Amino acid sequence: MQVEDQRFVDHRADVLSFETVPLEKDLTIAGEVKAHLFAATTGSDADWTAALQRHVERALVRGESNLMDLLSRDFEKILIAKALAHTGGRRIEAATLLGIGRNTITRKIAELGIADKNGSDEPA
Questions:
Q1: Is 34 among the domain residues?
Q2: % the chain with pLDDT above 70
Q3: How far apart are the C-alpha atoms of 78 and 73, rounded to whole Å?
Q4: What is the CATH number of the domain that holds 20?
Q5: What are the residue ranges of helices labelled H in the chain?
Q6: Cα–Cα distance for residue pair 13/24, rounded to 1 Å
Q7: Looking at the domain assignment, is residue 118 inside a domain?
Q8: pLDDT tens digits, residue range 83-112?
Q9: 91 is a domain residue
C-alpha cells in the first residue's frame, strides 16, 4: 500500500496542522535533528474505515471497477494472514478468532494465495 499525501484534509475543522512562514534565507542545521511528537485523537476519521472511504472515492474517480471483489479479497487476506501469524499458523485457532469454520479458512488460504508456513494446526 502506498502512503498518500494527506494535505487535502488541512482545511477541515477536525484537523490540526502547523505551518511556519517561509524562511527569509537558507538555514544550515548541524548535528542530529530530533522531533518529539505526540498525537492522539478521539475523532472517528482516524479509524481505518475513513481511510477505506478515501481509497474507494479515489478509485472511483480514477474509473476503477470491480472494487467490491478486489477490496473484499484484500480485506479477507489481511484478516486471515494476521490471525494465522497471531496463532503461530494454527488454522483452527485462527478460524475461531475470526468466527469462521476450519474448512472455510483452509479454502480461503488456498483461494487467496496466503502463504501458510506449515499448513496444519501444529505450532509454527
A1: yes
A2: 82
A3: 9
A4: 1.10.10.60
A5: 48-61, 67-86, 91-98, 102-112
A6: 30
A7: no
A8: 999 999 999 999 999 999 999 999 999 999
A9: yes
Q: How many angstroms separate the CA atoms of 94 and 87, rounded? A: 6
Q: What is the pLDDT of residues 50-77, one digit of tens each?
A: 788 888 999 999 999 999 999 999 999 9
Q: Note the pTM of the prediction, 2 decimals.
A: 0.57
Residue 34 dihedral angles phi and psi, to the nearest 5°: -125, 140
Q: Max Cα separation, the chain? A: 66
On whether the CB atoms of residues 123 and 89 are closer than 8 A, the answer is yes
* Rounded (10°) angle between helices 91-98 and 102-112: 100
Query: Does pLDDT of 6 surpass 80?
Result: no
All 3 cell numbers of residue 78? 489481511
Whether residue 56 is contained in a domain is answered as yes
CA distance 35 to 20: 16
How many domains does the chain fold into? Answer: 1
Q: Which amino acid is located at 111 in the chain? A: E
The domain of 33 spans 7-112
